[in-house]
Amino acid sequence: MAGPFANDSVQIDRRTSRSICDAVGERLQQNLRPDPQLPTHLEQLLNELKQRERESH
């Protein structure tokens, strides 16, 4: 069963599609920026991992 807009589709060219994707990607990057500082426990685990890597070489 087709949806209500199945026959009303609009074709867009690759350039327009790429522009839309780029704009959406930029907005997502702005809105989903990671926190600059990791939680303390995770920071400790990363430091421990780095220390173990140094000791194994």
Characterization of this structure:
- The protein is built from 2 helices and no strands.
- The protein is mainly alpha-helical.
> What does the radius of gyration come to?
23 Å
- List the total number of helices: 2
The low-confidence parts are none
> How confident is the prediction overall: mean pLDDT?
85
How much of the sequence is in beta strands?
under 5%
Tell me about the largest β-sheet: none
**Overall geometric form:** elongated
Number of strands: 0
Order of helices and strands: HH
Structural class by secondary-structure content: mainly alpha
Percent helix range: 55-70%
| C-alpha end-to-end distance | 62 Å
What brief labels describe this structure?
57 residues, mainly alpha, 2 helices, 61% helix, elongated
What's the gist of this structure?
The chain has 57 residues and is mainly alpha-helical. It has helices spanning 14-31, 40-56.
List the helices and strands and how they pair.
Blueprint: H1 14-31, H2 40-56
